[in-house]
């Protein structure tokens, strides 16, 4: 059970990293159209589009990735707390 919770926590950490990389790629012209950029966009955009509906962009800047990362951190802490609660 502890291995599963650890694996979920690591997957969340990796997904947070992908969101950060995607945000950085959007700053550089043409980077998001590269094969790596398209791959990361396919992984990240379904999750971020959920937050785009609720978090309006201000001045052309979307704050949805920040909210999405905060939610992932809360879920990650919840998983770690569950591990401590279960004693694994």
Automatic annotation (TrEMBL):
<keyword id="KW-0812">Transmembrane</keyword>
<feature type="transmembrane region" description="Helical">
    <location>
        <begin position="12"/>
        <end position="34"/>
    </location>
</feature>
<keyword id="KW-0472">Membrane</keyword>
<dbReference type="Pfam" id="PF02325">
    <property type="entry name" value="CCB3_YggT"/>
</dbReference>
<keyword id="KW-1133">Transmembrane helix</keyword>
<feature type="transmembrane region" description="Helical">
    <location>
        <begin position="54"/>
        <end position="75"/>
    </location>
</feature>
<dbReference type="GO" id="GO:0016020">
    <property type="term" value="C:membrane"/>
</dbReference>
<protein>
    <recommendedName>
        <fullName>YggT family protein</fullName>
    </recommendedName>
</protein>
<comment type="similarity">
    <text>Belongs to the YggT family.</text>
</comment>
<dbReference type="InterPro" id="IPR003425">
    <property type="entry name" value="CCB3/YggT"/>
</dbReference>
């Amino acid at each position: 059970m502890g291995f599963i919770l650890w694996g979920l926590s690591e997957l969340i950490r990796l997904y947070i990293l992908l969101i950060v990389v995607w945000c950085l790629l959007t700053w550089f012209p043409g980077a998001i159209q590269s094969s790596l950029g398209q791959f990361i966009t396919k992984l990240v955009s379904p999750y971020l589009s959920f937050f785009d509906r609720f978090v309006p962009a201000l001045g052309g800047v979307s704050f949805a990735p920040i909210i999405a990362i905060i939610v992932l951190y809360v879920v990650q802490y919840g998983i770690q707390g569950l591990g401590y609660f279960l004693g694994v």
